[in-house]
Each structure stands twice: as C-alpha cells, then as structure tokens.
Amino acid sequence: MPDVSAPSGQASAKAGTVSAPPSPAPKDPGPLRPPVSVRGLVAGGLLAAAVGVAWVAFWWIGLSPVTLAAGLDDTARLLGRMWPPTLPAAADVAAMIAETLLIAVAGTGLATLASVPLAFIAARTHQGTPWLRPVARTVIVLTRAVPTLAFAILFVRIFGLGPLAGALAVAVHSVGMIAKLLADAIEEADPAPAEAARACGAREAQVAAATVLPRVFPALVAIVLYRLDINIRASAVLGIVGAGGIGVALQTALGSLNYHRAAGIICVIVALVLLLELLSVALRRRTSGKTEGTALPAGRTPYDVGWDRARVLRVAGATITGVIFLASLWSLGPDPGRLSSAWPNLQSVLTGMWPPAFSADLLMAVLESLLMALGAAAAGAACGLVAALLTATGTAPWRPLAAALRVLLVVVRGIPDLVYALLFVAALGLGPFAGFLALWISCTALAAKFFTDSLEQLDPLPREALTSVGAGRWQAFTAGTWPQFVPAFTGNGLFVADLALRESVVLGIAGAGGVGYLMQESIATLRYDTTAAIIIAIAVVVYAIETLARAARRHLL
C-alpha cells in the first residue's frame, strides 16, 4: 500500500511503488480582464446607436453650427417683436382657462370610466374571456400611440369645431396610458384574495369589484391625477386645430401676426400649467401618503363601522369630483341633435379608412419624424445630463446655480412643445429644422428632470467613500455614481425618445416637418385612407420603440 504521506514524485520505499509524475506548472494567465457583461454590451450598443442616429438626423435636417446660430438669431428677433406681452382682458382669460380646464376634466373622466374595464380585460391575472385580452391590448397600444392633437383633428372633422372634439380627443388618447398603468397594477396585486373569492364561487366581475379594485384604487387615483396634469397641458393647445380652449386665442393671435397678444397668451398658458403642476404634485403626495402607524381616535379600532373625519373627507371629495365631472360634461354641449348629425361624418371617416393607402411620400414623412425625434432626444439627453449634474444634490458644484437652473427648467418644461414649434416656424419658416429645435428644448428640460430625480435616488456611499480617500469630484462620479446611474440614464433616455416621437407628429401639424402635416392635409382633403396608413405607421414605430425600451430595461435593471 503506498505511503500517502510521501511527497509527490518520490518512491515509497515501503511499498516499492512510484507515485504519479508531477503536473506541469500552470501558465501565467497574464493581466486579469473583467468579463464583458450583457449590461455593458446593451448600454454601449444603445449609446453607439444614439450617436449614429443623431449624426444622421443632423445631416438630414441640415443642422450645422452656422445654421444653428442663424436660426437662433432669427428666433431672438421674433422674441424681440413679441415684447412686451399684451395680456387679454381678465374676463376673456377666465373664460378661456375655464374652458381649457373643463375639456381636460371631461376627457380625463371619460377616459377613466373606459379604462377600468379595459384594464381588467387586458390584465393577465384576470380570468375573463381569453380572446378579449389581445383585443384590449391592441386598443391600449393604438390609443396611446396616436397623439391627442391627431385625434382632435379627426374629431373636429366628425363633430365640428368646439370643446366637444377636444374632450373626446383627450379621452381617447388618455385611455391608452390609464389602462396600461392600471393593468400593470392589477397584475402586481396580491392574488390571494381573488383566489379565495373564486373558490367561494364568485364570478370574475364580482372578484374584480370586491377584491382587486379596492387594492389598486390608490394607484388608480395617482394615475388619474398624473394624467389630468398631462391633459391640462394638452388641452391648452388643442385650440390650434379648432378643438376649443385657450389655444384658439393663441392660434388667432399668431395668424393675425399680433405677436404681443400671442406672447401674453403664452404667459397665461405657462402660468396655468405651472400652477396646476404644483397643485397636482401636492395632491399626489397627499393621496399616496401611507397611513400605517397613524393613531386612531380613543375608543376606536380599525374594524369599527361608522363615520369619522377621514371617511367624511373621502366621501366629500368623491362627491365634489363627481359634480365637477358632470359639470364639465354639461359644458361640452352634447345635445342629441349634434351627436346624431355627427353619425354620417363618422361613417364616412371609418369607411374611407379602408384599405389604408401607403405611399413612398408617407414613409419618407414617417422617417423624417423618426429622425427628427430621435436626433432631438439624443441631443436633449446629452444636454439634460449636463443640466442634471449641475442641479442634482451631490453633483451640483454651486447651490445658487443649481437653484436658478431648476427654476429655469421648470419654466421651460411648462411651455407646451407646440408653442415652441409655432414660434420657431414663425421665425424660421416651415420644415423639420423648426421641429427639431422645439423638440430639442423640450427633451432637454424633460431629460434633466428625469436624470436629476434618478441621481438623487442613488446610493451615495460609493461616491462618499471615494471622496474620503482623496478622489476628485469627477473621479468620484465616474467610479462611484456613473455605474449605478447607467440603467436609469438608458431607461429614461429611451422614454424621452418615445415621447419625442409622439410629439414630432404634433409638431408636424404646425408645419414643423414630419408626418403630422401630411396627416392634417389628408383629413382636410378627405383622404382618410392616407390618414389610416399614417396612424398604422405611427403605431408600429411607437410600439417598436417601446419594445426596445422594455428589452433594454430588462437587461439593464
């Protein structure tokens, strides 16, 4: 028996056997290299694609430092002609603001009523009729892909000028967002109560109403408030196409070259949007606040039945909301005669949409909108990152500069994209250059907000640890902050690109290039087959970008 204690390569005198020869020494592997991760490949590929698309977009639009300087100079001269602003009469301003708010409230309320059943049908956890689920998801994608202003053009053709067309446009487009987010909340809800109700013999509608809806109701309230904020911004410019609201006065002022009055109306729109944004933020914080740990009144338990202050406030709030919604519907003037006369127009629009008429001009217009949107999103993301680094806590070099820049970004974000487009078209003329500049400004402000929020939510410990050992500000950012920030930067950048693509269609309606102008022209000339082709093309492109964004987040998060 061999001596197991003998060293390798030595004979065992006791057993007379020889051990196995020694194994060769391992080769020097050289310097260690970290493995290439999927996250790094995805992030690098998206960055390279963004740079490439931005370069093609700049070439397509004809953007250069010379043309950019000339365009900004023309815009500055136009702004000089608009100063000082002339405010409309107080009564006129109040009437226009009231109509704008009523359009947004009516559209959001109608969208909420339609979105709740649609979201349950689209949710994978809802055990309803299986073949209805893809139909519901298709409706959600289509209504979300087509911008509000595009729907407004269609409804103005069907129902005529006025706030009714605007409210219906807001409602149809809002269904896509509210139903999608609510369906996600339904799928994430705890399934145990629903399964228990089904085990007791409850029908699916009873399960949804008794177990699922109460659990997702806080999320629904937050979604509706957020959508109302968006719809108020959209309603402020629907009058551009004759769908009511304060946008009618803006379009009239710009059309008559009364730039002083146009500037005053823009100031009113900005003040309205900023005020309502502050109110919306306050309401969302209050409705999303957690109540765990709240002390109950003396002598009460969580299971007591009866009225207390919280219940009275909830019922009063729901009653006031219902009254405002009914008043907003009444303000639209939905008389039966007008609705019945719209039926022939609706029939002609629907029958004229089939078959869709695709053409080379249409595809080129879609390509122009895509390049304009993606190029502006890439440039806006780069500028927004710089603005975020100057304003976010932990990266801002000087607090007064950060505070001033935050206020400026809020004001810039408060101006609707279409207003920028109208100004640039008036200063530079028709074409994609005006649309690109408008989208660039809005994408910069929006990306800066998203990036700032993401930077402030990161773990500060890696950056602080590097700073404590003598690393500079830039070294601490690249080694401690940037690796954490890459997923949020990529995801938010793709979301900004998605929004820019939708808005590029809207800007085209104002003559700022892209497929929007072609859509407005097709409806005005009753070529609804071209309109249908444009809607299908927009939906396909938007869905493709959303799919890319979901895949990127799946690999980055």
Task: Describe the structure concisely.
The longest helix is centred in the last third of the chain and has 37 residues, at 473-509.
- In DSSP terms (H or I, runs of 4 or more residues), the helix count works out at 20
Q: Kindly state the mean pLDDT as a whole number? A: 79
Q: What does the overall shape look like? A: globular
**Helix coverage percent of residues?**
over 70%
Which H/E pattern describes the elements?
Answer: EEHHHHHHHHHHHHHHHHHHHH
Poorly predicted runs are 1-21, 26-36, 289-294
Q: Rg, please?
A: 29 Å
Largest sheet: 2 strands, antiparallel
* Distance between the amino and carboxyl termini: 58 Å
Structural class: mainly alpha
Widest sheet: strand order? Answer: 1-2
Q: What percent strand?
A: under 5%
Number of strands: 2
Architecture blueprint of SSEs:
Layout: E1 11-12, E2 17-18, H1 38-61, H2 65-81, H3 90-122, H4 132-145, H5 148-159, H6 163-188, H7 192-199, H8 204-235, H9 247-255, H10 259-287, H11 309-331, H12 336-352, H13 360-391, H14 399-414, H15 417-428, H16 432-456, H17 461-468, H18 473-509, H19 515-524, H20 528-556
Antiparallel strand pairs: 1-2
Helix pairs in contact: 1-13, 2-15, 3-4, 3-6, 3-8, 3-11, 4-6, 4-20, 5-6, 5-12, 5-19, 6-8, 7-8, 8-10, 9-10, 13-16, 13-18, 13-20, 14-16, 15-16, 16-18, 17-18, 18-19, 18-20, 19-20
